[in-house]
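Researcher: Batch entry, complex prediction.
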Amino acid sequence: MRRLIVAANISLVLAAPAIAGAQLTSGLAGGLLGMTGGGYVTLALVTAQTRAGQYHFRRDQLGWHLAPIPLGAAAGAALGASGSERLLRSLGYGAVGLAAGSALGALAGTALWSDAEGTWAGGIMGGALGLMAGAALGAATWERSAAPGQPPLLTLRMAVGR
Amino acid sequence: MRGRALAARLGVLVPTLFACTATSSVAPPFEPVPEPRPSDVAAVLLLVGDAGDAVLEASPLLHRLRADVERWSGALAEEGAVAVAFLGDNVYPEGVRSRGASGFARDSALLHGQVSTVSGAAARAHGTRGLFVAGNHDWGNLPGQAGLARLRNMEALLTRLAASGPLVELVPRAGDPGPVIVELGSAARLVVLDTPWWLQADDRDPRKDTLIDEVASALARTDGPVPIVLAHHPYASGGPHGGHRVPLTPKWLLHKAGALVQDLNSRPYRRLRERLGDVFERAGAPTVFAGGHDHSLQVHRGSSAREPAWMLVSGAGSHVTPVGEAPGLTWSAPAAGYMSLVFGDDGRVDLYVIAAPPEVLECPAGRATTEACVREGVSAFRAMFSARLR
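Model: Structure tokens for the complex:
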């Protein structure tokens, strides 16, 4: 856990150059939200592994499963630093993705596994996928194409430095 | 305005969450069972679990248990009529580490504290046994050979302590999943399992079939002794491992998904209960299935042929955690304590739950007031529940 907190802090420090002035608050908020979202993805990874019959007997057996936490923190901080509007949009889309993914995942879990825990496992895994997809979609920016008749451009921009 | 609305919502939500998680106890009024005269008692089995953080000098519970062991051993004055089952998690946090490791001294002291409960004069004179059952922490919460090494360390330490007199042993032995059959005089037949082994072994491991078959043959014998199954993992629980967790927390979510291997609804644990349930239905259910694991005192009554007649959780030897509702839960308390099963000459079995408030669990060690605190703590223990089980 200590290593995880250190990693999350390093991520925030690395993202710090992008954070200035008024963007500091949204950057920090983004970092915290990203860390929380990453934590949820970690839960989903652990759940997925147990469905495959691999259980963790102690916390320090968690290794790569924890990677989403610092990654989420860094991505969230960078997103927040690039603008609170995008952060809020990412949060909104992420929440919708989480809800929709949880519902679909629960349905899939019920169909795949006969035990009651399967429904919850499916819900958690689906929710994490929905959360990631929604957050990424919310973080992306739509631009109307200059050329008539062309589809709009979907761009994902992230502040990584000044 | 919006802030007020949010505060109002939280005002409703927060107490609701706490209500869901609050320490609760199911303690309907009960008819106390008077303790039988020693002349009417054939054997006594004391059950204490998860005592692996109890330091002898500072634990009123260990002192009270020792006094009870001495009292019964002396009163029955019969070879091997009294036994104490230490129901796993005998050394926190990760079992007995290797000699030379920094934690070894502490690990040995913790085990020694429990051994001392069966080291008194009467206990030694009348062959009172200390049966140490493996818990997941005794395996170091480690699967495979690494965990087995921790268990071997515990076994070696118990063997060394036994050399100085007390009859203590690891049951089953390290590496043997069980069951080991221990006869308590002619009064009770103890069927002891290493359930942490089951949770980590592959479902196709043939030793699982052997274990199940041997439990079946032990229970199928109807030649007199009362069948009692002992394991670290309980058959039923209303504690955190049974799902009584703080809602919306990561552990709550993981429990719901069956992703916590130590919880009753994980696949390996459920499979263990299913297969034992098949055995109970086929060969006859034991009178009692006693485990620890959850840090509370619980008495569950079986409701079908697939369940033992009584399911006990005695895991409050050094920690206390809340208990919620559970089907069949007859009595429970988030309290420090242990249980005793008193087997009568006429085949009856009485249960006594000896408990005290959680604050009594530990006195501040190494102070001038420690001894007085322990003395006061010992006197706080009383029979909080009793029942005739058979």
